[in-house]
Amino acid sequence: MPILSSSILTIAVAAAVATTAAASLPASDVTAQAARSSAPGAAAPARALSPLQQAVARVRAEGYTPRSTRQYKPWAKLRVLVGTATGSATGHNLRAFFFVGRRYIGTDKSSPSGTLGYVGQTSTRVRLRYGVYGPGSADCCPTSHRTVRFQYDGKRLVALDRIP
Predict the structure, then answer these.
(1) Is the N or C terminus of the chain more exposed, i.e. has fewer CB atoms within 10 Å?
(2) How far apart are CA 118 and CA 114, in angstroms?
């Protein structure tokens, strides 16, 4: 019996010594250890988004998905992305999103278009092609098309032609 008591006492003393030793470490050692263990896996600082990435993020924030990023011209003062409403079953819920540099300046019109495409641009003007629907036209099949020019006048986006 005395051997069993002695063993339990030895284990209890060893545990108490280990706990006291761990508790007596200076806080600076704990902080330094935490820094050393997190340094290799630490995330690098976030890089700034490119103007295109910012534009795509804005289009998505508006509930649209860019159809393509090829029409976004980083060399141009006025830039555009055409987007389809995210989750649109038909793809005929389109809007043009305009940017000057990194700044979002608005959409082509207040409501979506059934057919909309990028035609081309200069540094300060963008040309878009809209479907024109006659009575009874299906979403897929506009009866004609109209090209509309857009320009940024230094304060706002201006449609130089009537938008259908």
Answers:
(1) N
(2) 14
Indicate the pairing of strand 116-121 with strand 103-107: unpaired
Instruction: Compute the distance between CA of residue 61 and CA of residue 164 in angstroms, rounded to an integer.
Output: 26
Q: What pLDDT, on a 0 to 100 scale, did the predictor assign at position 41?
A: 52
pLDDT at residue 92 in the model: 81
**pLDDT higher than threshold 50 for residue 3:** no
Report the half-sphere exposure of 38 (CA within 13 A, side-chain side): 9
One-character DSSP codes across 49-98: PPHHHHHHHHHHHTTEEES-STT--TTSSEEEEEEEETT-SSS--EEEEE
Work out the number of other CB atoms within 10 angstroms of the CB of residue 157: 19
Write b or e for each residue in 25-61: b if 16 or more Cβ atoms lie within 10 A of its Cβ, otherwise e. eeeeeeeeeeeeeeeeeeeeeeeeeeebebbbebbee
Mean pLDDT for the stretch of residues 114-118: 92
Can you tell me the mean pLDDT for 34-49? Answer: 53
The alpha carbon torsion through 73, 97, 157, 111 (nearest 10 deg) reads 150
